[in-house]
Amino acid sequence: MFLTVGLAVACCIVPAGLVADNETAVTLLIVSLTGIGIAAPNTWAITQAVCSKRLVGTVSGIQNFGGNLGGIVAPLATGLIADVTGSFALALTICGVLLVGSALAYCLLVNERVDGELAA
User: Fold this and answer.
1) Residue 86 backbone dihedrals phi, psi, to 5 degrees
2) Which of 50, 54, 100, 120 makes the best surface tag, with the fewest CB within 10 Å?
3) Helix (H) and strand (E) counts in the chain
4) Helices (H), 51-111
5) What is the pLDDT of residues 7-61, one digit of tens each?
6) Residue 103 domain-assigned?
7) 8-state DSSP, 96
8) Domain containing 24: what range?
9) Structurally, how many domains does the chain consist of?
10) CA distance 10 to 95
11) Angle in degrees, CA 98, 60, 54, rounded to 5
12) Measured distance between the N- and C-terminal CA atoms of the chain, rounded to whole angstroms
């Protein structure tokens, strides 16, 4: 639940790129980062809850690789989009779409523990 709510709150990044007022944009970015702060630690907890014990390290490594890859691609893509369009609005909207897709994936795909107990 915390992961999904955190990702939903992080979607405040979309209007941050659309408002004209800088203070409002910064406030929305702070709220968005707070949502990411709520969601991110729970991705590691879910890994331990839904993977068998012998695969937790491998899956965590794959998650870490994906996060690092995103850390490389996201700034590059954002910079290219901002350079071409002259605005961050499209880049932040794409980020919002990815956040919604992630929240839906966690809601719809993560529903049981490996041992058959319901995931929290």
Assistant:
1) 75, 15
2) 54
3) 5, 0
4) 56-85, 89-109
5) 999 999 999 989 999 999 999 999 999 999 999 888 888 888 888 888 889 999 9
6) yes
7) H
8) 2-109
9) 1
10) 9
11) 140
12) 8
